[in-house]
């Protein structure tokens, strides 16, 4: 009763191997042939046994996604985009949420190898670069997303963190702010390091050195935001502007500002890094550095599929070289939380 | 060079079939035996070929999760909890985001069958109950989460929507409100229907009929929230309280209240349904009906694994009967957005 691959090939007027290539998601087939085979398969109700065909073709049509959490808006946007784009190309996503726990990440990487994934997209903790290299060495394409730990292998699709930080600080400087505070992530994480260096660079370009009393760098947690605001606003000369670059701390940062009764932007201008769907509705609407999470997801998929299919990239270079670094631009979205100091 | 199952069994002092059962995730093994086998496998660096073993055992160790989106806080909390709990039990999650599109959902169900998933958790659109029944009929356990479309098969783990709505309205009535407005989802979706019926029931118990001018039922979209607030607040006798039961519309609802300059709670008390991590930090902090997303995820996993392992449930009943309905309690979290009418 089950329809065979032979029947699909005959109905489509192609060889069995061509039909097989189309149905296994290979891109090395003309669009016309692809359509003919897919429509024949659909008409006949053909259902491949992916487990068995996985053994033959060594393709599982599974992609591993190792990611920090889904609460952060950038991460859940990336996960949605990635899953839907991969699905359109015939791949399903094995979701692995690490909570930044290196032991858990290690276990996931092991499991993904067991499941013979065809590719891996990872927002890495940076503690398991040896295993990520093993995955690469096993011939499985790897895209490092948003974080490029030292010694990692594979391609990197990175946010424009430094550039975004510069945009935020230049915006504040342009309004006349000089006492600009910074709440950021830890120096061990790319976004923590790069946003801080953008902050320092933009200040330096205006002839300003950061005031140590106005800088807070620490973990991606809500309490860190709360504590930092309490400390910064208690400084002998409090800031007139705050660049909040630690997204996970933002709930704490905003909560503490409300608790202290700080009026934004009258008393303190505020720029947050990474967009969230409720920022436009805050009182006042929050000026943000949008890190283009959607584009980060799209480009990670594109680069991964290019490696899987061994296609040359847009520049014409074959991708079988060392890892490529792709940076996605950030942009500033000005809303009501920033104004000239009074 | 590769370590074989025989070697693991020998090192653990058990038979090959026992070792196999442990490593394939079966629960029918004593805890002591499980530990012995797992520690031997780890010590020796054993890596099962899950694709090949999937063919032999007919287990893929994959679970399909079909869900509406990841932007809604309930959905991303559920996805995180479900993935991490299943991982602890040896299963990986194939994530499928539908955006409420029935055609996409249909394609996902097809693909999940191709991948021979061992189970399915679905927040269904309600348009593909025939296919969900086919999945069940193929012997794959199904848990319907948050939505139980008519004619669906499998177990259902549902939120306490009606009960939660009653809690919200009773809270407002208890403060002295009588003109209570409602913004909810469409009647075709469980949460839209059940929250409205709880709203009506709680009002009825206080001898009040809902004012049609104060009721808005419509799609789970941001613009619907904006439009509804504009209409409700323009009523000849505007409400003194609003129960916002349409979570996706909430961004629009809050934005419109800010835009109109409505003071909460002085001018309008507000209760929102479904918790979000930023609600405690809104001005004022928002009173919510928490639908216990974490518990919904946990219970869905528990029920699914029970079916996969064919274990009796806590009440001692074998689970090979018709689908079970499990309801997760809602609770009211009172914050600063509700007060007595002035």
TrEMBL record, chains A, B:
Pfam families: LacI, Peripla_BP_3. The keyword Transcription regulation applies. Residues 3-57 form the HTH lacI-type domain. The keyword DNA-binding applies. Residues 4-33 form the HTH cro/C1-type domain. It comes from the Bacteria. InterPro entries: Cro/C1-type_HTH (IPR001387), HTH_LacI (IPR000843), LacI/GalR-like_sensor (IPR046335), Lambda_DNA-bd_dom_sf (IPR010982), Peripla_BP_I (IPR028082). PANTHER family: HTH-TYPE TRANSCRIPTIONAL REPRESSOR PURR-RELATED, LACI-RELATED TRANSCRIPTIONAL REPRESSOR. This is LacI family transcriptional regulator. It comes from Streptomyces acidicola.
